[in-house]
């Protein structure tokens, strides 16, 4: 049991620390030189709320602000007042000014705070670089994460040999990492993501043997992943997303037995086998995404009992999923999408209540895929397979091997409008964008109510300490779109995804289309706030072809909240359109807070570059044109019946036609031959069961379509009278116009108006007896 006097001491010590004072008496104040330094610092960075009427070590006067509720915001100064005489004054040992909208250059006066050990200026708008005066400082922990610092790596920092933690993440530094960094022998954490560093990684980094947390993501390094990473035997976290390096991952990684978080993605170079990771018993997050890994997945991966997140997506992995994966029931996320895996989908993927995605593989065992009603549409052993888990649907699992067109030909669509992440919106010219605001899970597959489009999303936002990620976002306050415009509604919302977002247009009629992708950056801003420091980059694929690399909405639109549309010409050949957006490890991930990154899209519109065919509803047309047409049709059936009985009489057809009151003209066979160059084969534009169709031109220049019924057809007479009777009786603006006919000897010929693009065959009375 702890004695009461010790408990009292701990409470008093905690109270003093909370108020920014350690070991001070009521009469001890901050050293006057440090007060003057703070005044200069406050002026240069725009910190206007410091109240110098109160002692900075008193814990009063805004020197310690306890109003912030999240770790990204902080405004505190901590003093140590325990120094004995003659140095009995208080001294500043820690300054945290996080997310304070500070601007200007980094003040040299920080170097006058001789006892300062911790300085956190993250998520501000400071510019310039680190002043040379800082070389004399004794800092142990320094963070400039999320500012606007630029220039080469500040060599002055390599003089701060007391540093243990250094973060330059999310700035604009460029050039190589200097070899002088080897002087920082006490360094434990080095965060350099989201800069513009270049060149190969200096071998001197391998001398940092105390490193426990190394982050190099989102840079422009060159060369292979260095073998010296095997020297970091104490490392716990290693993150190298989209850093520009090439594979393979060196075998020396097997020595990093303390690793709990390994993230490497988007490596260049040639395909390579899976790296040796069997010694990594402490691994919790294993991400090797798009690293050109080929061959089988090692069995020991399934035996990593601490593993919570596994992402091996978009590699070249083959073979079956190891049976050891049955042991991964404690894992929260498993992503194997975009590989060449074969065999069957393990049944335990259905049983575990987790997010699992094994889409885009070569699974061939249909029996392993469960039947989940509407969700399951396995029709053949094709290469696409989807397995998704949506927590919002209480763990329901969807396995889908193919997205078939469930509509008959007449129900093919030729236009598609989707309001991504929002409700139904009607825009200019009466276009109605369908709602896309329902699915909200991590890895999921969703089909629209009319089965004409679908979407799949992969991934979860990491490091944001939020189990309920939001995959649709909205913002109305920063939009530059005219709010009175009907299109304003398209840009109030957007759908986002951590890794991969794919939209499908289903049952499209084949042909050439214009696909418009509508974007607006509604999270990051153009002002000087925390939201202006973020940078979003992702890749765009159309029909599985990369069409835009490292697309930046804000840059393309020349500002935040401004709409921008990217248009692509697409040839649809199998009735399916596929639009993919993928995060390739580029852009910031921790601004304004952790977990803000990945693809974002506001709307999709698809329109044909051709005149779609028109399929008529015969019943509806009969009702529309009325009883006179019905009566004429009945009369026509009577005529056809009579003609059927007289089909062997060569003169019967001529007699019957003369007996009809036809609203058409007649042509001589000589006129027809002249118009068609004597039925020249080059003039032929179609052929069916009853004869051929030729393109012709009358002397006055009018184009015609000449249908010559075959003399060998038993139903030639019937077809002839059928067409001429009906079309003559049913002249209508929407129907092909009949100019006349020709009856000479055994020739039965109909003359129509000529329609481009073979539209004649799609006219109503070519299909009347289907």
Describe the structure concisely for a colleague.
The protein has 770 residues and is an alpha/beta fold. Helix content is 12%, strand content 28%. Its EC number is 2.7.11.1.
Tell me about this structure.
This protein has 770 residues and is α/β, with parallel strands linked by helices. The chain has nine helices and 47 strands. β28 and β29 (432-436) form a beta hairpin. The chain starts with a helix and ends in a 17-residue tail after the last strand. The strands form eight sheets. The chain has a 14-stranded mixed β-sheet with strand order 1-2-3-5-7-9-11-13-15-16-18-20-22-24, with no helix packed on it. The chain has a six-stranded parallel β-sheet with strand order 4-6-8-10-12-14, with no helix packed on it. The protein has a six-stranded mixed β-sheet with strand order 28-29-27-41-35-38. The protein is elongated and about 130 Å long. Among the domains are: 296-402, Leucine-rich repeat, LRR (right-handed beta-alpha superhelix); 409-608, Jelly Rolls (Sandwich), CATH 2.60.120.430; 618-766, Phosphorylase Kinase, domain 1 (2-Layer Sandwich), CATH 3.30.200.20. It is a single-pass type I membrane protein. Keywords: ATP-binding, Glycoprotein, Kinase, Leucine-rich repeat, Membrane, Nucleotide-binding, Phosphoprotein, Receptor, Repeat, Serine/threonine-protein kinase, Signal, Transferase, Transmembrane, Transmembrane helix. The chain crosses the membrane at residues 621-644.
């Amino acid at each position: 049991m702890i004695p009461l006097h010790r408990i009292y001491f701990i409470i008093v010590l905690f109270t003093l620390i909370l108020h920014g004072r350690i070991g001070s008496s009521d009469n001890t104040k901050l050293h006057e030189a440090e007060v003057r330094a703070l005044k200069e610092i406050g002026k240069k960075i725009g910190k206007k709320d410091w109240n110098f009427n109160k002692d900075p070590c008193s814990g009063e006067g805004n020197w310690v602000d306890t109003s912030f509720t999240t770790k990204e915001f902080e405004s505190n100064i901590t003093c140590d007042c325990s120094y004995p005489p003659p140095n009995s004054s208080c001294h500043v040992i820690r300054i945290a000014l996080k997310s304070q909208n500070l601007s200007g250059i980094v003040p040299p006066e920080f170097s006058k705070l001789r006892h300062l050990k911790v300085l956190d200026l993250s998520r501000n708008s400071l510019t310039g670089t680190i002043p040379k005066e800082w070389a004399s400082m004794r800092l142990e922990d320094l963070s400039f994460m999320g500012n606007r610092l630029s220039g080469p790596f500040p060599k002055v920092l390599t003089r701060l040999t007391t540093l243990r933690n250094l973060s330059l993440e999310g700035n604009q530094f460029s050039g190589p990492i200097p070899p002088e960094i080897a002087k920082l022998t006490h360094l434990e954490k080095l965060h350099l993501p989201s800069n513009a560093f270049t060149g190969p990684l200096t071998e001197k980094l391998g001398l940092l043997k105390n490193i426990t947390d190394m982050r190099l993501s989102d840079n422009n390094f060159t060369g292979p992943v260095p073998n010296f990473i095997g020297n970091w035997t104490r490392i716990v976290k290693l993150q190298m997303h989209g850093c520009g390096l090439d594979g393979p991952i060196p075998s020396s990684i097997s020595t990093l037995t303390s690793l709990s978080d390994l993230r490497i993605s988007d490596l260049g170079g040639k395909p390579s086998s899976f790296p040796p990771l069997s010694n990594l018993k402490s691994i919790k997050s294993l991400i090797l995404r798009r690293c050109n890994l080929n061959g089988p997945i090692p069995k020991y991966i399934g035996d990593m009992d601490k593993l919570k997140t596994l992402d091996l997506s978009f590699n070249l992995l083959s073979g079956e999923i190891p049976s050891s994966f049955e042991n991964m029931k404690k894992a929260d996320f498993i992503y194997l999408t975009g590989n060449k895996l074969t065999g069957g989908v393990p049944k335990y993927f259905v049983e575990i209540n987790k997010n699992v995605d094994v889409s885009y593989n070569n699974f061939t065992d249909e029996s392993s895929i469960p039947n989940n009603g509407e969700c399951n549409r396995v029709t053949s052993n094709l290469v696409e397979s989807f397995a998704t888990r949506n927590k919002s649907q209480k763990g329901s699992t969807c396995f889908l091997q193919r997205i078939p067109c469930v509509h008959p030909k007449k129900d093919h669509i030729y236009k598609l409008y989707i309001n991504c992440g929002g409700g139904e919106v009607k825009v200019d010219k009466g276009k109605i964008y369908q709602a896309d605001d329902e699915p909200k899970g991590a890895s999921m597959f969703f089909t629209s109510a009319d089965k004409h489009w679908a979407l799949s999303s992969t991934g979860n936002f990491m490091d944001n300490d939020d189990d309920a990620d939001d995959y649709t976002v909205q913002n109305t306050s920063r939009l530059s779109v005219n709010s009175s415009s009907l299109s304003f509604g398209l840009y109030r919302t957007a759908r986002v995804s951590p890794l991969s977002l794919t939209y499908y247009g289903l049952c499209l009629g084949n042909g050439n289309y214009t696909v418009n992708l509508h974007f607006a950056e509604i999270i990051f801003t153009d002002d000087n706030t925390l939201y202006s420091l973020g940078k979003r980059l992702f890749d765009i694929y159309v029909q599985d072809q990369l069409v835009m690399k490292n697309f930046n909405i804000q840059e393309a639109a020349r500002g935040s909240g401004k709409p921008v549309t990217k248009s692509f010409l697409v040839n649809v050949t199998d009735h399916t359109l596929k639009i993919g957006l993928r995060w390739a490890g580029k852009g910031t991930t921790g601004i304004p807070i952790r977990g803000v990154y990945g693809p974002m899209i506001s709307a999709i519109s698809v329109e044909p570059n051709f005149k779609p065919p028109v399929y008529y509803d015969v019943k509806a047309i009969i009702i529309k044109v009325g009883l006179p047409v019905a009566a004429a049709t009945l009369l026509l059936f009577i005529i056809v019946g009579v003609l059927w009985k007289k089909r062997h009489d060569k003169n019967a057809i001529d007699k019957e036609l003369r007996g009809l009151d036809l609203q058409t003209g007649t042509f001589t066979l000589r006129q027809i031959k002249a118009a068609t160059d004597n039925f020249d084969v080059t003039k032929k534009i179609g052929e069916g069961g009853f004869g051929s169709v030729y393109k012709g031109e009358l002397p006055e220049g009018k184009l015609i379509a000449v249908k010559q019924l075959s003399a060998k057809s038993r139903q030639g007479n019937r077809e002839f009278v059928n067409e001429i009777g009906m079309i003559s009786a049913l002249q209508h603006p929407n129907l092909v116009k009949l100019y006349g006919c020709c009856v000479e000897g055994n020739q039965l010929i109909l003359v129509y108006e000529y329609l481009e693009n073979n539209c004649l065959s799609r006219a109503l009375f070519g299909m009347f007896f289907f």
